[in-house]
# Entry
Amino acid sequence: MGLIAVPYRPFTGDEVADEARNTRILDGIAGLANMFPLQHPDQERRIIVAQILTDPANQAWEIWRDGELVGILLLTRIVRGLDALAHLAFFDKKLLGKRQLLRNMIARAFRELDLQRLSVEIPAPLEPLIRFVRAKLDFRFEGEAQAAEHPALKGLPSGINNAPRWLAHWGSRREHMHFDGTHYVDVCCLRLLREECTELGRPDQTHGHTADASRRPADAAAEHPAPAVPLVRDGAGRSSDERGRERASQ
# Structure
């Protein structure tokens, strides 16, 4: 069996299983300092993570493989019709074999939240993760597309490889935003625009079940309903999907 995603439910009625599952999640996330750059003792950090996971304004999915809980996908700072901040947490700290599930879940977020863009913020020292979201998930640094058109690039030394990427890599930083356990480092801001999400043109392929048949996505959705925030529309009252269909018909 491959990877499957199930909406996160903190409590399912099985106290023993719930305690084991939630402990696994909190231990896993607590071991990934890049998830939430907070300078707190471990127990306080676990409490903060639990609050974030159970906040009804956020959305979270458990990632399972062959009956084993291997990670969490999380959306915070959700503004329906506009943007959300994505967090990836795989407890084995490996990205191999997870590309297609992530692409499917990204497309699902665009569809269900009517997003114009999806954001990620990654500590600058984590170059392998930055390369992964760029090469495998099509994210780009903030301002990278505009940098490619800027006339100032002509004044940069000719030896710089991919000058727009190099320039945006530095310009997209939020300084001293991540505490790595010793000192503060920068985070790099990347984004994926709606028109760049190729999976949007394909049927929804995200999995809707898990190895535990007692936990169904429909049940989880009712437990953590999204806040009733109206879609962002233009002056004519059209949503982004409606504008896209109108352009396609022209």
The longest strand covers residues 68-79. Residues 107 and 199 are 6 Å apart (CA to CA). Residues 207-234 have pLDDT under 50 and may be disordered.
